[in-house]
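We treat protein structure as text, and this decision shapes the records that our systems exchange. This encoding replaces a full spatial description with a residue-level series of whole-number codes. Below, we set out a record of this kind in full and without editing:
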Amino acid sequence: MRKMMLKCLGVAAAAFALQFTQAEVKAGLFDQCNPCDEVTACDPCEQVSCGTKGTWFVNGHIDSGFWANAHGQRNEYIAGVRHGFNPVSANTGLLQNVQNTGYQVNQLYVSAGKTVDGTHGWDFGGTVDFVWGTDARFVQAAGLEKANGHDAEGWGTGDYYSAFAQAYFEAAYKKLNVKVGKFYAPFGSQAFKSTDTFFYSFAPTYGFVPATAGGAYATYTVSDKVTVYGGWVQPDQIGETKDDNAFLGGVVLKATNKRTLHYAFAAGENHVGGPGAGVDYFVNSLVLNSQETKRLRSVLDWSYIQAKIAGDTVSMWGINNEWIYQYTDKLSFGLRLACVRGGGYSSFYGVIADNQDWYTVSLGWKYDANKWLTIRSEIRYDEVEGSPVFSYDKDYQFSGGLSTIVKF
């Protein structure tokens, strides 16, 4: 009996020593902290730093496919011009990421960085996203990829461009999170990354709200239902001029277990060119995400921008409504209805002229074959009331395409 007790004590001591040794080898003495009410190798009440808690990551995707229009209009280019794509050729610039006919690599996207987790104290990290392809021009920022904010496109030529979609430093402490650098602007429901969208083509509302912003903002989690944020930004630029300044603010409200409401706004001025040549602007968006049933979810997105240019006030608004039905674990179907009312404002990729109405309907499906492959297809109808904008003399267009997303 005595020998058996000694053996048991020896095994227990060895197991304890082995566990402590493995913890040191894997993470170090002050990593992987537990709450204060547990006995750990860390300082029990965070009097000393318990090390980094976020994780390093490198991932990305390749989104490529083809898109064509019923008019048969092909790509046309202006000879001798570096960014010489004729915007009324092909599928026209109105369709953003599918404006060119035929096969195209929309996004070769690589993301690297470190996530943050401020649960047990300060944690620091950041993210750098680089993208190359026909879509990259939409996330180029004046002062970084574009030497002049008035250039149509910066890094790249022809159909293909490149950009740092995001490049920011991040810090977290408890319920507070701070980002400094270039990041996605929190407007509308339309994401830029292909892996975060259902449809192949962008919604029309994506065309006139800022895609990115440079600056700094802080996010604070008030409760499990309310999150607020605010800071200073430069929409679609990063440090090109000190004369472009805006306040960015917003709130995310989890109204119910099935519905989340997100409101974001930016109010500022851009006085490039001196007094009298500036623009005072206000842009905002309201997004309602709903889980209607176990398989059906919807999003309702309203965006609006107003600007005062040389004493004249112009505005533009748009509505985007999507329904996504998850038929099986891998196959889903979607319907999108959207419209935009033009107001002659074009600083953030304005797309149509004053007092023109643009309507669009999209039907699509998405098949997640496995963890690394997704296939999407979409057919779309667009109509613009007013001046013809499709294939020179048409005010409507049927179009469609197929894309594949390979994740790595």
Notes: The chain has two domains: 1-51, 56-407. Helices lie at 2-27. The two ends are 58 Å apart (CA to CA).
